[in-house]
Amino acid sequence: MEGINKKYEIEIEVLTPLSIGAGAEKDWVRGIDFVVEKGKIYKLNIKKIAKARVDPTRLASCFASKNEGGVINLITREKLESVSDAVIPLPCDSQNDVKAFVKNQLNGKPILAGSSLKGAIRSILFTYLRSNETKEKDVFGSPDKGDEFMRFIKISDSEFEKTSLLNTKIFNLRQSKGQWVGGWKHSGNQTEGDFRPTGFNTLYESIMPGEKSYSSISILSNKVYSELKLDFRNYYNNEIISLRNKLIRNPYDTKAQLELKMFQSLLKKVDLKKDLVLNNQGNLNGLFQIINDHTKVYLEKEKKFFQTYSAKNSGKILDSIKKLLDKIPEDNSYCILKMSAGSGFHSITGDWQFSDYSINGLDRRRHVSRGMYNNRLSSKSRKIAVHKDHFDLMGFVKIALLKEQIKIDG
Hints:
Helices cover 34% and strands 25% of the residues. It is α+β, with helices and mostly antiparallel strands. The strands form five sheets. Strands 1, 6, 12, 13, 19 and 20 form a six-stranded antiparallel β-sheet that branches. Strands 8, 9, 10, 11, 17 and 18 form a six-stranded antiparallel β-sheet that branches. The protein has a three-stranded antiparallel β-sheet with strand order 2-3-4. The chain starts with a strand and ends with a strand.
């Protein structure tokens, strides 16, 4: 039964710079993985350096101390390009490591893993399906019981052609005359209203707006889900009866109490999940509507945030938000989704805790600068992509159905 899905071919277009981290161990370290010379990054290749007969002992000493100047002098400026895998224009100087994009190990091309896209959609569906639940297993089910709903949604990896280096800055809130105001973070303890491209900035290897790739989404067919729905409903009812009997014998069994609440929650979700499947017959409009509704609410809250807490160039961020809102289609023929690096606290949590993004305090209990709103952890900073004259929230993509024809797997 599992694996008999409706498969939809999709096109993914990057709308604002997208970065999917390859992990800290893959990040480019200055003075080891790359050097900067005359406004360009030289991504070094150790094998090519060895063939160029650079003294390995002295080179190792320079690497150990991240002595960038020493590395350049050993290789010599004339040979830098010949021992590098890539020579890339430096968008802005930074003292931080360059955040690397995850790559296909066979051909070195950047990939958007299906699991990353699915994770972003999962957070949105959790918000859509939940009522009072705060745990995913109370909404989706669990893998060990075989009723985890998200296993019926599968997304393939997609491959892009290239990445570029992107500068990012942190838009942060600070207090001025007892009021919260917007600013740009220029050091660990310095947030100012004026903008500078350097200082506490980070370079990301990113896929830039306009780049496209292709993938597929497979969702359980209506016929198969109708059968599963019957099984799930019977299964949940039987578990509820069993747990109620257990609690009659021992009313203080806390584990049984928690499991009873979980199965009662799951029983309420059965019809909602079926509607999600049914609304995608022949297209993905049902799923796209859920994503678009979520994105619209999120962007409206972000718009209000930047209107309330302004600083230099915050108007350009608002312009970018307006363009994204304008792109959301009324007919849900495609969807706009936020994902990956720079997603921020509110996107990662599914954004169900907050009606807006106001800040009225700091979390001083943990000695961190996390924002608070009505005694709940919130976020007072945003990672902003700065490229050319654009100031964008990161990671927005457009997903559109590529073909009307639907293939049946199984």
